[in-house]
Design brief:
The protein is α+β, with helices and mostly antiparallel strands and about 290 residues long. The chain has eight helices and twelve strands. It has two domains: about 1-135 and about 280-285, 3-Layer(aba) Sandwich (Aminopeptidase), CATH 3.40.630; about 140-270, Aminopeptidase. Helices cover about 35% and strands about 30% of the residues.
Length: about 290
C-alpha cells in the first residue's frame, strides 16, 4: 500500500479527483473543500497552506482513497479502507510536525477509528470523541408534515449582518469553527447558496447549500434562532433548499446531523432523507 503526500492542490485534483467523484456522497466534504480552495484561494481556511494525500493499494494502481487538511482544521478522510487509514496515521506520525500538526481527525466511523488507534499507538496520545454524525441522502423529497406559514427566498446583500450573526450562533451551538465568517457568508450569498424562510416578512430560519459538484450538493448549515423554534421553520427551509438544488442539477442531495440531536435526525427523515453512513470526529491529546 502506498501513500503520496503533496502541498499542491492541482496535483491532488489530478491524482485523486476521479476517486473522489466516484463516491460523491462519502466524499462530499473533500469535494466541497477542494472546490472552495480552487475558487477562493489556498488561504481561505487559514494562513497555513493545506496538505493533501492519496492512496493506492499497489504501486501504479488507481487511487482508491485520499485525505486533506486545511490548518488549523484537522485532517478529513475520504472513503478509505481501514488498513489504509491506519497506514496514513503511522506515516503522518513519522513525518512529524514539520509536515503537518494533527490534533484530531474526521471521516467515516470505521476509517476514523482505525486512524485513531494507529495514531495513539504511534504517538502515545489519547483520543476522545468530539461528536458523532450521520450522513443522510435525499430520497424522494416530501413536504414537512406540518408546513409552517411563510415562504422561501434566497439571501441577498441586505441580509448580510443577520446571516453573519446566525452563522456565529450556529457555530457556538454546534461546536464548530470557521475562521472568516463574513467572507464565507459573502461568497455563499454571491453563489446563491444561502436560503431564508420568511414569515410575515421576517427571516426566521436559514439553510446553506454547497455548489453542485459531480451531481452532488450538501445542505448546511441549517439554523433556526431559539425564539423561532418549534414551528417547523427548519424543516421548511431545508425542504425548500433541497428543492432548489434539485432544480440546479443535483442528483444527490446530502446533509449531516449530529447524532446527539434526535430532533434533527427525525425531521430530516420526515422530508425524505435516508441514512448513508455514520461518521466521527476524534480529538487527540497528550496523556
Amino acid at each position: 500500500m502506498t501513500w503520496t503526500f503533496s502541498t499542491s492542490l492541482d496535483d491532488f485534483r489530478a491524482q485523486a479527483g476521479a476517486a473522489l467523484a466516484a463516491r460523491p456522497a462519502q466524499n462530499t466534504v473533500l469535494l466541497t473543500i477542494t472546490h472552495r480552495l480552487a475558487e477562493s484561494g489556498l488561504d481561505v481556511f487559514g494562513s497555513t497552506p493545506p496538505v493533501f494525500g492519496w492512496w493506492r493499494a499497489e504501486e501504479g494502481g488507481p487511487v482508491e482513497g485520499a485525505f486533506l487538511q486545511t490548518p488549523p482544521f484537522d485532517p478529513r478522510l475520504s472513503f478509505l479502507p481501514e488498513p489504509a487509514a491506519a497506514e496514513l496515521a503511522v506515516e503522518l506520525a513519522a513525518a512529524g510536525a514539520g509536515f503537518t500538526t494533527v490534533n484530531g481527525v474526521g471521516g467515516a466511523d470505521g476509517a476514523v477509528r482505525a486512524f485513531a488507534a494507529a495514531w495513539t499507538a504511534a504517538t502515545g496520545t489519547e483520543q476522545t470523541v468530539r461528536f458523532e454524525e450521520r450522513l443522510y441522502r435525499l430520497g424522494r423529497l416530501t413536504d414537512p408534515p406540518r408546513p409552517p406559514a411563510g415562504r422561501h427566498r434566497l439571501a441577498g446583500p441586505a441580509d448580510r449582518e443577520l446571516v453573519i450573526r446566525w452563522y456565529r450562533e450556529f457555530m457556538a451551538e454546534a461546536g464548530v469553527e470557521l475562521p472568516d465568517v463574513p467572507r464565507a457568508v459573502d461568497e455563499k450569498t454571491a453563489a446563491g447558496g444561502l436560503h431564508l424562510w420568511e414569515d410575515g416578512g421576517e427571516p426566521v430560519a436559514l439553510a446553506g447549500t454547497s455548489p453542485v459538484l459531480v451531481g452532488m450538493s450538501r445542505i448546511g448549515p441549517v439554523y433556526t434562532p431559539v425564539e423561532h423554534r418549534g414551528r417547523g421553520y427548519g424543516s421548511a427551509v431545508t425542504a425548500a433548499a433541497s428543492a432548489h438544488v434539485l432544480t440546479c442539477g443535483a442528483t444527490e442531495v446530502l446533509l449531516y446531523t449530529n447524532l446527539a440531536n434526535p430532533t434533527s435526525n427525525s425531521i430530516y427523515q420526515q422530508i425524505g432523507y435516508r441514512p448513508v453512513e455514520d461518521c466521527l470526529v476524534v480529538d487527540f491529546r497528550a496523556r
